[in-house]
Write a structure and sequence with these properties.
147 residues; alpha+beta; Aminopeptidase; 5-stranded mixed beta sheet; 29% strand
Length: 147
Amino acid sequence: MVSGVLILFPINCIWIWQNDVIRQLHDVFYFYLQSMLNSSSFTGYTIVGFAMYYFTYDPWIGKLLYLEDFFVMDELRGSGIGSEIFKHLSQIAVKCRCSSMHFLVAEWNEPSIKFYKRRGASDLSTEEGWRLFKIDKEYLCKMATEE
């Protein structure tokens, strides 16, 4: 049996981040944890996947849900868990009046690209020519202190 739970902050049960990072994320990110009844023991449920997301705004298209991280345990991929998480995120986006959901995928991650495209995702890098840039903290500090 698979079940999901939406977790809003404050939170201290996610093992993938240290406590100081969790405090920094307070009221910014939301987590959806997908769990499954652990049939091999009496320990209850096991987390088998998660989504980390937040809401943002684009002046051209309006409010959107940004999927920051999405993960399903390797041995359970292809079992429908990712589809359930994605369905739940879609329901959240529609309920919150988002115009779309955005996310990044590494070019080498062909299985994920296929997963998203089967669900109607558009590849903006090829369709609209968008490129992703970043400015590291070193350069941020440099620009912030320039006179």
